[in-house]
Amino acid sequence: MTRKIFGTDGIRGLANKTITPELALKVGQAAGMVFQHGDHRNRVVIGKDTRLSGYMIENALVAGFTSVGMDVLLLGPIPTPAVAMLTRSMRADLGVMISASHNPFEDNGIKLFGPQGYKLSDEVEMRIERLLGSDLSERLAKSADLGRARRVDDVRARYAEYVKHTLPRNLSFEGMRVVVDCANGAAYRVAPEVLWELGAEVFSVGVDPDGMNINRDVGSTSPAALSQKVRELRADIGIALDGDADRVLIVDEHGVLVDGDQLMALVAQSWKADGRLSQPGIVATIMSNFGLERYLATIGLSLARTPVGDRYVLEYMRAHGYNVGGEQSGHMILSDYCTTGDGLIAAIQVMAVVKRRGKPVSEVCHAFDPLPQILKNVRFKGVAPLEKAIVTKAIQSARDKLGGEGRLVVRASGTEPVIRVMAEGGDRALIERVVDDVCEAVAAR
């Protein structure tokens, strides 16, 4: 059975069109049934980002979970990694994050975490999907067994303390001027607070959510505003989070963007020097630049690649004992500290290296020169057109042109109705042509 509802990062779609109250109610019921274990009162924690539709989805999920006898703890606006952490620390059977991450506000989604704070496996998601397609009315709780719901007030402080404890107690960011862009999203309060408590002089961007401005011209997908602010304030570093703060990109003191590949290279080199790497390498996806792989080889480290999606990176890390992994887009998984991507923890780990070395971010965070790489997105309606003859022919032609001097990746996004076309190689003009050729074929009607 092929998954129809779950994508690469939970369930995601247009709010009140794809992600409806009816769907959220059934997800609550189905997931609650799958994660009810034993005779104790089973509980679920629910967090959300700042989207207007979060209220609607949150209430529908509460109705679903309580109707099958699960107690609900409501966390309010909080980063995705905080939900994963609190699922563990509050001894919950399940964690839920209501977010569409970096997508525009019109979208929303439902991410699920198991009791240990890890995203669900394909197998468990399939079990939930099968229940979603069935009649659950006969399996609802009896009147006396219905769940209760209550809000938890101190979750932001709990998460803040957890984040700070990932650094040595004697390390301070005093003297560092930091601009943090919270994308008008889930970390709009906690990220500036943590950085200030660690001693930095903090300037904030994207901290005025109104329910509809999440990720709009701010955050890791739109870093221009952050770059401008860093230059304007002559800051030492800029930090760009996304809507649910599970990814991060950095801007150096010149306002130049530093992507996830460079951040992984920095952490890998630093942790290797400190003897902190659990394996002689890191894990990334097929989208990471080949320059990263070549750099790691020069310092005696390997790069294992997985399909796109931070949960696939984490699954490989857990299976093979790695403790550093991530994606070019900014997901950083440091499994000594967290069970999913955590943009804030990744940011302060990078800042710690910068602080210790006493050199500018532009120098510290430039480990290698990437190969020219171009990524373009083509939006589509209906079924992804990857099997169309014109598309398969264009892909094969592009690979023939690249030969052994480049790499082409064409895939359907698991979070948006777009085809992503990426090519890299030594000849920028050539990769631009092959990417444009494939995009034209995908867009052809």
CATH homologous superfamily assignment of the largest domain: Alpha-D-Glucose-1,6-Bisphosphate, subunit A, domain 3
SS content category: alpha/beta
Low-pLDDT residue spans: none
Mean pLDDT reading? 94
Strand order of the largest sheet: 1-5-4-2-3-6
- Could you tell me how far the N terminus lies from the C terminus, measured between alpha carbons in angstroms? 29 Å
Percent helix among the residues?
A: 25-40%
By CATH, the architecture of the largest domain is named 3-Layer(aba) Sandwich
**Binned strand content:** 15-25%
Counted up, domains total 4
Q: What is the overall number of helices? A: 14
Q: Give a count of the beta strands, DSSP E runs of length 2 or more.
A: 18
CATH domain fold name of the largest domain: Alpha-D-Glucose-1,6-Bisphosphate, Chain A, domain 3
Give the overall form: globular
The radius of gyration over CA amounts to: 22 Å
Largest sheet, in brief, is: 6 strands, mixed
